[in-house]
Amino acid sequence: MKQSKLFPKTIKNAPKDAVSANHKYLVRAGFIDQLMAGSWTILPLGWKVIDKIIKIIREEMNAIGAQEMLMPLMHPKDIWNETGRWDSASEVMYQLKDSRDKEFALSFTHEEIVMDLLRKHINSYTDLPVAIYHFSTKFRNEPRPTGGILRGREFLMKDLYSAHATEEDLKEFYEMVSDAYMKVFERIGFETYITEAAGGVFTENRTREFQVVADAGEDTIYIQKGTKKAINKEVFDKNLMDYEEKRAIEVGNIFPFGNKKYAEKMNVGFTDKDGQKKLVYFASYGIGVTRLLGTIAEVFHDDSGLIWPKVVTPFDVHLLQIGGKDNGEVEKKAENLYKKLTDDGIEVLWDDRDISAGEKFADCDLIGIPVRVVVSEKTEDKFEFKKREDKDSSILSYDELLTKLKS
After folding, report:
1. pLDDT, position 202
2. Where in the chain is the domain with CATH 3.40.50.800?
3. Closest CA to 290 of 108, 85, 46
4. Which residues of the chain fall short of a pLDDT of 70?
5. Separation in Å, CA 156 to CA 42, 140, 176
6. What residues does 385 pair with on adjacent strands?
7. pLDDT at res. 325
8. Closest CA to 330 of 386, 379, 399
9. In this structure, are strands 371-375 and 348-351 parallel, antiparallel, or unpaired?
10. What is the pLDDT of residue 323?
11. CB neighbours of 322 closer than 8 A, spacing ≥ 6?
């Protein structure tokens, strides 16, 4: 990709209301744009990151046998009335009427929709278990949509739902999902803790959150020393001597509902092997995809800009052509390197713009691609290689460069 063609260009100054790192750097570097409070456009650079996040999540969900689909975003009032959440969750739900005075809700979650699917298609214990998920927009009437993209009124989420014939089977799958979530977050490079928490508008039971340690986090958690376990401050009632207090960002949560809250109210059952009618055991599991984008920015940055982990970087290499417009040989060399790297499967952002070297270096640090490669008169027939987080660079031949990039 030529940077001269990239939309949009970087912005010199952060938005006036930007306090968090993700708000400052993701906006300035051209990853996101704010339409209104709590509503963000994911721009081309940001979508490349989101696409790689989705790929990681999808791989781990498929690995535990979950099946991907896509559910509607607008739901009839009747289905929410079956569980009583049209009223009990009205504070977070966007509710509206159409021209025929029929009432609907915009999805803030999909438990009721999944239960409706199950009662249409589940008959026997042989139809269970079921594990289905999708990547979908969620709408929540967030009273404080602050912190950049971390807390929005409209956001992208991966939600998974599972139904089981027995409580034991539900518990087993619940642990499988918990492990899969940890794999997702570990692959990104987060320091993540499985955190005991309250269920909010979803359930009265305790649930598990997945919290990433970050100074900008809205949550306070207490980490059990020497483990990956923690307790959210809202339910913490233990001896502080055994725990360490940290600020953290919630990136995922899992809810075990059993067979009462949804299955009983919506009459979702099956016939067991003895011919008896039983209610399904149900659970839901969520990862905030756009929230992960913001969390990565909060965890991986410095004073100059973003530092993308290799697994989710929008490009593998930021190629800087220095002095190219005044020197046809440098421009030709940069173009040849761009083509060779691309042919070798390396994703390259080529800064071919006719601007100063200082501006190019500043934008390179701001955008935060893990590797910078410079082509100039000084490098002659070689290339200057530098990792984003390193101070020092090295001069490499093409073969040496390719080996570094492939390692």
Report:
1. 52
2. 315-406
3. 46
4. 199-204, 324-327
5. 10, 11, 23
6. 373, 394
7. 60
8. 379
9. unpaired
10. 82
11. 330, 357, 360, 374, 375, 376
The CATH-assigned architecture of domain 315-406 is 3-Layer(aba) Sandwich (3.40)
Return the DSSP state at 328: H
The predicted-structure confidence for 324-340, as pLDDT tens digits, reads as follows: 566 689 999 999 999 99
Q: Are 67 and 61 in contact (CB under 8 A)?
A: no
Q: Where are any strands of DSSP class E within 165-242?
A: 192-197, 207-213, 219-224, 229-232
Q: What is the pLDDT of residue 368?
A: 98
Tokens representing 251 are 């990136």
Written as six digits, the tokens of 330 are 């440098």
At 393 the pLDDT is 97
Pairing of strands 348-351, 103-106: unpaired
CATH 3.30.930.10 in the chain, residue ranges? 3-302
- How far is 289 from 311, CA to CA, in rounded Å? 15
Percent of the chain with pLDDT over 90: 90
Q: Helix 328-343 crosses helix 398-406 at what angle (to 10 degrees)? A: 40
Alpha carbon of 252 to those of 179, 329, 349: distances in Å? 12, 51, 31
Residue of 191, 178, 205 whose CA lies nearest to 286: 178
> What average pLDDT does the structure give for the chain?
95
Which residue, chain included where needed, has tokens 């499967």? 345
326-to-4, 187, 200, 335, 357 alpha-carbon distances in Å:
17, 43, 61, 15, 13
pLDDT for 85: 96
CA distance 75 to 83: 14
In whole angstroms, what separates CA 26 from the centre of its chain? 14
> What does the alpha-carbon distance between residue 21 and residue 256 come to, in Å, rounded to a whole number?
34
Rounded distance between C-alpha atoms, residue 150 and residue 348, angstroms: 28
Tokens of 210: 């997945």
Q: How far apart are the first and last CA of the chain?
A: 22
Which residues touch 257 (CB under 8 Å, ≥6 apart)? 111, 203, 205, 263, 281, 282, 283, 284
What is the β-pairing status of strands 130-139 and 67-68?
parallel
- Amino acid letter, 87: D
Task: Give the angle subtended at the CA of 399 by the CAs of 394 and 400, to the nearest 5°.
Answer: 30
CATH topology of domain 3-302: BirA Bifunctional Protein; domain 2 (3.30.930)
